[in-house]
Specification:
MetI-like fold; mainly alpha; flat
Length: about 290
Amino acid sequence: MSTKKKRAELFHQSLFLGPAMVFFLIIVIIPFILGVYYSMTNWNGVSSESSWVGLDNYVYLFTDDEEFLKSFNFTFRFTLVSGIINNVLGLGFALLLTQSIKLKNLFRPILLLPNVIGGVILGFIWNFIFVAGFGGIAEATGWSFFSGWLGDSMTGFWGIVIVSAWQGSGYLMIIYIAALIGVERDLVESARIDGASGFKLFRHIHLPLIMPAVTICVFMVLTGGLRIFDVVFSLTSGGPFGSTKSVAYDIWDDFSGVYYGLGTAKSVVLFLAVAIVSVVQVLLMKKKEVAS
């Protein structure tokens, strides 16, 4: 290729990619760099002046900030539990709704519908269910199981998990359905002729072939779980006594209390945690995928 053609090709590439790269630089890269800078200051978010404190904010997070450590513990527990439940439900619904059953085309949008509703709205809806609905059942029946769900750390945790599963499993179901439909029928029929059925058919035929979808779904649940905020905000507000406070909610608390330097440091730590977990998860699960 001549120099003139190379320059023309570079010009056309810059013409198409240039605006997107400029916006990406302004919206993502520059704010990220500024965030890393402000995480090493004591900026309060209001004053135009701030003092450089170096790594003091990061040292404080892991030595003296008990609320942050507690929120990290909650966030990782929630991510693990909700990740398993969401994927099991999503895959289970997909397996069920790819069978020859009546009304399966009706159940698919019904199960997907909660994902269309925003997390904050879902949180307020379920807050009413847990407080007024469960409270009414407890008062009518005398069953203590239904009383004070959001006032206890254990049931509050499971309340957030339930709302997360209600919202996310339907979306994962759609991804799994697309993957299951793509499995070649000839392979399934051959396995059935050889005597495979039920769980063995799923374990040795379906699961290896839908592993790319499993990788995507696990990735989505892990990254979403580590960044959860809206459901916690509207359902429990981090209570009782901070037992259901996520890292993102703890960051929001710091920003509300004008501790922007400390809050930004927590944001950087959360970013690194999400990045590390995501990369490790994708690398490990990619090895299990069947080469096409």
